[in-house]
Design a protein that fits this description.
The chain is α/β, with parallel strands linked by helices. It contains twelve helices and ten strands. 53% of the residues are buried.
């Protein structure tokens, strides 16, 4: 695996405006109200971004290149709390960004992962928009009477906003998102077999990355023995660059917990059948925090046999709780659903970080 850290030459400016984003969108200005389902009153004091949002949330396709441009702008605008690096290089030559939000020297860390499945790219759009919200209010915002700076100075978030960039580009653009002849042919073959490119979950090598981990490898009930648009786990665990990268990130810190974003279903998965009971109990506590905000139903260990997923892996490997938030009604999630999902999920990071800060995990 290559680790290329050379800087990108990226255009910096009003990217969102140039791409048709509405700076008056109520997504970014929805920062002064609580969207929790909790009975306790939550308070937040935050300011709006006077130049309009950086991350565009008014169009359906949020691309890999846009994400990189947004990260560059966010890092330049909020250097006190946002840093990113370009790490592993995928089969199609795209580098996966790794984002640090908050105090890199904090004693506690949370790992966030999204868009491991190609067609689930709205999860990256949501995570990036939430990152912008917290960064823009880092110095002056509050959550439950605690400043955001205090919270995220004590609990640092390590974020992989798009774990499967090759797959995302293919799910958004079809053959145009593929960079080599073999992958273009594979996309065409999927179409001939009745699977439209916007339904592809796998990476460019036809491996479902969320089945490429050790715990439960090959045990998925929808297992596919050869490369496929979904549910093919690969020849062996960690056969894919992206999977190895996630493992490396997970070894960087002793994480308090793991938070994973997928689509769709508007529900939350937690725990794993072969995880320790104490880990599953902590995962339920984590999921109940999420449910307070989203109102989403919870599906626990009895519904989650190990199948080679990332959530299964970390719970058993590190004995730490993990929760998977499934966003939206279908795949790909229509952009019309974004505002509602944003409002429900916005304060989850602060709530979870405050719980970690207070030694609840």
């Amino acid at each position: 695996m290559k680790h290329l850290l050379s800087p990108l030459i990226l255009k910096v400016g009003l990217v969102c405006l140039l791409s048709g984003c509405n700076p008056n969108s109520n997504v970014q200005s929805a920062t002064n109200e609580s969207h929790s389902h909790d009975t306790e009153t939550e308070t937040s004091q935050v300011g709006e971004n006077p130049s309009g949002p950086i991350v565009c949330v008014t169009k359906q396709l949020y691309s890999y290149d846009e994400m990189l441009e947004d990260l560059e702008i966010l890092q330049q605008k909020y250097p006190q709390c946002v840093k990113y690096e370009l790490k592993a290089e995928t089969y199609q030559g795209r580098q996966i960004p790794l984002v640090t939000f908050g105090n890199a020297n904090a004693k506690r860390h949370v790992m966030v992962m999204s868009a491991i499945h190609a067609r689930e790219y709205m999860s990256a759009q949501l995570v990036m928009s939430m990152l912008e919200h917290y960064a823009s209010n880092y110095d002056n915002g509050k959550y439950k009477e605690t400043t955001l700076k205090n919270i995220f100075d004590n609990v640092c978030f390590i974020i992989v906003p798009m774990a499967n960039p090759d797959g995302v580009e293919i799910a958004q653009k079809g053959e145009k998102g593929a960079l080599t002849a073999d992958v273009k042919q594979w996309v065409r073959q999927n179409t001939k077999e009745g699977t439209k490119y916007d339904q592809i979950k796998s990476n460019a090598r036809g491996v479902d990355l969320n089945r490429n981990f050790r715990n439960g490898f090959g045990k998925d009930r929808r297992y596919k023995p050869t490369k496929n648009y979904s549910h093919h786990p690969g020849p062996e665990p960690y056969s894919e660059i992206e999977s190895v990268f996630l493992l490396e990130v997970s070894q960087m810190h002793d994480y308090a917990l793991f938070l994973n974003y997928h689509t769709s279903g508007n529900l939350v998965y937690y725990g794993c059948k072969n995880a320790q009971q104490s880990v599953n109990n902590a995962a339920l506590k984590l999921s109940n925090i999420i449910k307070r905000h989203t109102g989403s139903p919870l599906y626990g260990p009895d519904t989650s046999p190990a199948c080679g997923s990332w959530a299964d892996e970390v719970e058993v490997l590190y004995k730490r709780p993990s929760a998977t938030i499934e966003l939206g009604s279908k795949n790909p999630v229509p952009i019309a659903e974004f505002n509602g999902l944003y409002k429900k999920n916005l304060w989850i990071w602060a709530d979870i970080a405050l719980a970690v800060m207070n030694s609840q995990f």
